Amino acid sequence: MTVDLFVSCVIDQFYPMTAMNVLKLFHVCNVDVEYNPEQTCCGKIAFNSGFEDDAKALGEKFLKDFPNNRPVVGINASCVGFIKTRYKELFYNTASHLKYQSLVGNIYELTDFLVNKLKVDYFGAVFPHKVVYHDSCSSLRELGLKDEGRQLLSKVNGLELIELEHPEVCCGYGNSLFAVQHESISCALAKQKTDDAIAAGAEYIVTNDMSCLMHLDSYAKKQNLPINIIHIADVLAQGW
After folding, report:
1. Is 4 helix (H, G, I), strand (E, B) or coil?
2. Does residue 239 contact residue 21 with C-beta atoms inside 8 Å?
3. CB-based contacts of 181, cutoff 8 Å, min separation 6
4. What is the mean pLDDT of residues 158-185?
5. Which secondary structure element, helix H or strand E, spans residue 109, and what is its range?
6. Which of 94, 110, 116, 139 could pair covalently with 77 via S-S, beta carbons 3.0-4.6 A apart?
7. pLDDT tens-place string over residues 132-170
8. Residue 24 in 3-state DSSP?
9. CA nearest 162: which of 115, 139, 129, 195?
10. pLDDT per residue over 20-63, tens digit each?
């Protein structure tokens, strides 16, 4: 099997090693990976900021960047969720409608692809830490994913998976515009999420959403909290 890898802006600019770890996971699964270096933003930030025309232009480019009718796997849940739910609005009754329909049925978030498409949940990873899994709003509410990340983490050697008291509460990122315009609310939600994790005895918060990760990681470091935030791909690639 060959897949196209969708690397979001946040990962490309700030967390490139996470993308490299995804390549390691696909190598274990005997999956060939194609990466289009011309790919850019999916349009999510522009759309959430109210710039629909700019979002549509970026979306049209995204459709052209993935024309191969093979699985497209995204590392960032919120970007995949945006494409699956909002491209319908952007391209309804347009010349790109058929391209959108073809792509939306063939794009997957990473944990969804590994567990539900490839039927693989064990990578021989070793991560001897107590962790909680953060359900991002996009993953939970747009993509309907909840058990996939936990299933993957349950097979990691040495890892103790603890449940948050309030696992389905937003971390406060919302989207880039919300976090900036409503900083006090955004930080209060980040505090609630990190306090919940620390109270549970976790050393790490694990998530499949880089937007949430960046938000929580920034908050935890600014407040000098005894908690780390890490993408699930980085956990699955540990120890081998």
Report:
1. strand
2. no
3. none
4. 86
5. strand 107-109
6. 139
7. 999 999 999 999 999 999 999 999 999 999 999 999 999
8. helix
9. 129
10. 999 999 999 999 999 999 999 999 989 988 899 999 999 999 99
Q: How many helices (H) and strands (E) does the chain have?
A: 13, 8
DSSP label of 237: T
Chain-centroid distance of CA 16 in Å reads 14
Whether the CB-CB separation of 82 and 45 falls below 8 Å is answered with no
Paired residues of 109 in beta bridges: 74
Strands (E), 75-231: 107-109, 130-133, 160-162, 204-207, 228-231
* CA proximity to 4, closest of 102, 107, 131: 107
Q: What is the pLDDT of residues 91-136, one digit of tens each?
A: 988 888 888 888 988 999 999 999 999 999 999 999 999 999 999 9
Using CA atoms, how far residue 233 sits from 10, 68, 75, 238, in Å, is: 15, 25, 8, 9
Distance CA 28, CA 10 (A): 25
- Answering whether pTM is above 0.90, one says yes
